[in-house]
Amino acid sequence: MNRRQFVAASTAFVATVNQADAHSTKTHDGWVKTPNLPPEFLPKVVDLPGGFAPGEIHVDPSQFALFWTLPEGRALRYIVGIGRKGLYEAGEFYVAAKREWPRWTPTPSMIKRNPKNYKKFAKGVPGGLKNPLGARALYLYQPGRGDTYLRIHGTPNPDTIGQRVSNGCARLSNDQIIDFYEKVPLQTRVVLNPMVT
């Protein structure tokens, strides 16, 4: 399936189950509570025609949507925050590592772009509620390149969901990344589709 077919398929999705069936509102890890997101930002099982293999991650930045593909042309759709203009990197990746309450260290390019905001964190930030990677992170690699420094992760700022705000990563609310993290095995294929302009 090419990019045009993916966009056509993902824009034609139709909700087929109750949102409550796709997302729980419980407290996670004993301290992460479900934020008060708009109903349209809750995970939703949708139709996703186009012959996608189950168990893959597809991000459509034009819709701020991450799709976890399911059997029979369906997907679990999450609304995400994505990379700011010029920082979103389209391509094919795989999940090479997973971390709970990950440590975060800004990359050298982040420090160079914005030393005022990032230089003070050059030695890293331990995992926790205020860590920019949130409660969980999936680490995206490419064959021959290794770690791309791109992540699918949580955020302590759920108000950034549905916006172009990151340094290239896709972010979910902490409660949603905790739920999603459990579904995704290592070596999962990840496709970050190009932005449609």
Key features of this structure:
about 200 residues, alpha/beta, L,D-transpeptidase catalytic domain-like, nine-stranded mixed sheet, two-stranded parallel ribbon, about 15% helix
Q: What does it look like?
A:
This protein is an alpha/beta fold and 197 residues long. The chain has a single domain, classed as L,D-transpeptidase catalytic domain-like. Helix content is 17%, strand content 28%. It contains five helices and eleven strands; from the N terminus they run ααββββββααββββαβ. It has helices at residues 3-11, 19-22, 108-113, 115-118, 174-183; strands at 44-47, 57-60, 65-70, 74-79, 82-83, 91-100, 136-142, 146-153, 164-166, 170-171, 189-192. The strands form two sheets. It has a nine-stranded mixed sheet, sandwiched between helices. The protein has a two-stranded parallel sheet with strand order 5-9. It is globular and about 50 Å long. 36% of the residues are buried.
